[in-house]
Specification:
Number of helices: 10
Bound molecules: S-adenosylmethionine
Structural class: alpha/beta
Distance between the termini: 32 Å
CATH architecture: Alpha-Beta Barrel
Order of helices and strands: EHEHEHEHHEHEHEEEEEEHHH
Largest sheet: 12 strands, mixed
Number of strands: 12
Strand order of the largest sheet: 7-8-9-6-5-4-3-2-1-10-11-12
CATH superfamily: Aldolase class I
Shape: globular
Length: about 350
């Protein structure tokens, strides 16, 4: 039986050796996905987690409650594809009921968004990121393995109509795949209130992308500026790592997420909980601590809190991933949640 105690948790909260206070937890609630994006899903056999090895919702909620007592105030639900997991809406609602959690958001591929938008809203989620690497239907199928482009657009439109704000569109930029669409996405930001976020591709896991296909932010900016000057936007506390820009008169924004060309490790405030119940302290390092095992063996909240605080002390100063340099993380992004 788990001991849900009010026993004392580590006093200082989650502060690492470099004085970074960690207040943001990303929850990968499943390793399953309804797409097979070429740059994300492994090209070698990577077994799915057996059901018993996936954290149950009540276990995730317990970890989040402990994390909140340790200073986590912001949570993002991701996956795999979070919307494929049964019971996700009740889970999102329960998450919304956790006192002290100030910000809950969702990252999805958007395939199931249109049919579920009311329930997501009802669960109290207003901020959403949709991954969409192309505006071309045929290319979408080539990248993801499925003809779901129209479904995703329906989802994005219904999110807009339902009043979600902001709606961020995540575009991983890959040479030879979608670099020719930078201007099309930029034009979309002129007409529609989307936040288009260009993300540098991170070579991790094993898949069919070639490291030479990495295309970094300076080149992205150079291409975008052919459309006109980009005005920088002042960042606010909820911005995360994106550099924000806008074209004059645009309805939306452009964001650049540059884990390679200008990494943001110095003020990284993130932890990740995998679907298998491991706490990862850096996306691009294999350092992780098992929370599921101790929890299922009866660890108290204080024990779990201590494990979390100790894991945080192993957070690296910065990741070693550089331009044209693979990282040693073999777990695919689909297993960690991005
Ligand atoms: N299924 C959801 C989705 O598609 O948004 C959530 C999980 S997905 C792993 C989270 C994000 O990671 C997506 O925006 C995806 O494009 C991004 N991603 C996956 N592999 C990546 C890589 N190697 N480099 C950069 N971003 C990556």
């Amino acid at each position: 039986m788990p001991v849900e105690s009010t026993m004392e948790l580590p006093g200082k909260g989650l502060i690492d050796r470099f004085n970074r206070r960690l207040n943001y937890l990303r929850l990968s609630i499943t390793d399953r996905c309804n797409l097979r994006c070429t740059y994300c899903v492994p090209d070698v056999f990577f077994p799915k987690l057996p059901h018993a090895e996936i954290l149950r919702y009540e276990e995730i909620l317990r970890i989040v409650k402990i994390a909140v007592r340790l200073g986590i105030s912001k949570v993002r639900v991701t996956g795999g594809e979070p919307l494929v997991r049964k019971g996700v809406y009740a889970f999102l609602k329960a998450l919304g009921g956790i006192e002290g959690l100030e910000d809950i958001s969702l990252t999805t591929n958007g395939v199931l968004l249109a049919e579920k938008i009311e329930r997501i809203l009802d669960a109290g989620i207003h901020r959403i990121n949709v991954s969409l690497d192309t505006l071309n239907r045929n290319k979408y199928e080539k990248i993801t393995g499925f003809d779901r482009f129209d479904a995703v657009w329906r989802g994005i439109r219904s999110a807009l109509e339902a009043g979600f704000y902001p709606i961020k569109l995540n575009v991983v930029v890959i040479r030879g795949l979608n670099e020719d669409e930078l201007i099309d996405f930029a034009r979309l930001s002129m007409k529609e209130p989307f936040f288009i976020r260009f993300i540098e591709y991170m070579p991790m896991g094993t898949h069919c992308m070639n490291i030479r296909q990495q295309l970094l932010a300076p080149e992205i900016l150079h291409t975008l500026e052919k459309m006109g000057p980009l005005e920088p936007i002042l960042r606010n506390k909820n911005d995360g790592p994106a550099e924000r820009y806008r074209f004059a008169g645009a309805a939306g924004e452009i964001g650049l997420i540059r884990p390679i060309s200008h990494h943001f490790c110095h003020d990284c405030n993130r932890l990740r909980l995998t679907a298998s119940g491991r706490l990862r302290v850096c996306l691009l390092s294999s350092v992780q601590e098992d929370l599921k095992g101790p929890m299922r063996s009866g660890a108290s909240d204080a024990d779990i809190g201590r494990i979390m605080a100790q894991a945080v002390l192993r957070k690296p100063h910065e990741h070693g991933l550089g331009c044209m340099k693979n990282c040693d993380v073999l777990d695919p992004m689909s297993a960690i949640g991005g």
